[in-house]
Amino acid sequence: MNKICMGIWGMTNLRDRFNVNGFKEDVSVLERIKICGETDGIDGIELHVPTEIDEKNAAEIEKILNDYNLQMVQLCGHTWTEPQYKFGALGDVDIKIRQMAIDRVKWALDMGARFNVPISVLWPATDGNDFILQTDYIALYDRYVDSVHQILDYLHSNKYKTKICIEPKPFEPRSWIMMGTTASALAIVQEVNDPNFGLNIDVGHALIARENVEDSFSLVCRAKKLYHTHWDDNDMQADMDVPPGCANFERMVSMLYVLDQTGYDGWFGLDLFPYRDDSVDFMLLSVENLRLGQEVVQLMNERGARDLRARGTEGPAMSRLIRDCIMQVK
Ligand SMILES: [Mn+2]
């Protein structure tokens, strides 16, 4: 069964632009990791260099991970929270800023190797545009791909096993972010064509891009490039990062169905932002919903979903099957 891990960035006081103080209290990084360890169903964590881990606290984090038998699953170089990255990072026009971003990702790979981290995400948060014709996208893609090649050269020269994953998101913090959809990220992944370079589909990002998520998961799995997943949900208006299944339970089942069909054996990462609510409750609800969804898929398989679907004509019958399986496993 796919293991579940939690992004610790969402487990503290969270600010938004209308309340820069947040509604909660800050929780230290070490405390957040302990809380993950104490939460049923959570087997790993995800975090950023250097905002959540650096050389100063790495030994303490290592001890907590061992104490709670937690795995560090994803370690990401933070390249969007400092002034130099306001107009871009791995794709920035300024070669010095681009180099800083590359070095930041290399730092995440070095630190990740110490923890045998399987995944490192690249999120092109600020590589994009706010104004019409502000950014030359052709040049941006050239620079970004060049940075990716430098990172992969470093990875291979150090014999790191980490898989680097692009995580597409259409907008926020920029009006538009480059490679904003699953298919456009896959185009770049296939251009680069490296076994250690693939995708992390963040379900909420695909939903605000109004993607047909069954199609997106199928496309990436068909290309054998789905290396990681981020689960969360929203009403397809904004990336609210509520627990998976809260807004689109049947859609969640459809994605789990495709992952079962294609044999995805990677992690389910939780990328949650409980601005107002309890982060443990968010994690528990996520675990409940994902496991319930997987049970629904198993029951659907037992009841002939694959044959029904292969016909391509059985819409109402499939809808009844999904409904009945959801009702039965509850
Ligand atoms: Mn994410």
Describe the structure concisely for a colleague.
This protein is an alpha/beta fold and 330 residues long.
Helix content range of the residues, please?
40-55%
Q: Write the CATH fold name.
A: TIM Barrel
What ligands can be seen in this structure?
manganese (II) ion
Alpha-carbon distance between the termini?
19 Å
- How many structural domains? 1
User: In CATH, what is the homologous superfamily?
Assistant: Divalent-metal-dependent TIM barrel enzymes
CATH architecture: Alpha-Beta Barrel
Q: Could you list the spans in which at least 5 consecutive residues all have pLDDT below 50?
A: none
Largest sheet: 8 strands, parallel
Rg calc: 20 Å
Number of β-strand runs: 10
Strand content: 5-15%
Structural class: alpha/beta
User: How many H/I helical runs?
Assistant: 11
Order of helices and strands: EHEHEHEEHEEHEHHEHEHHH
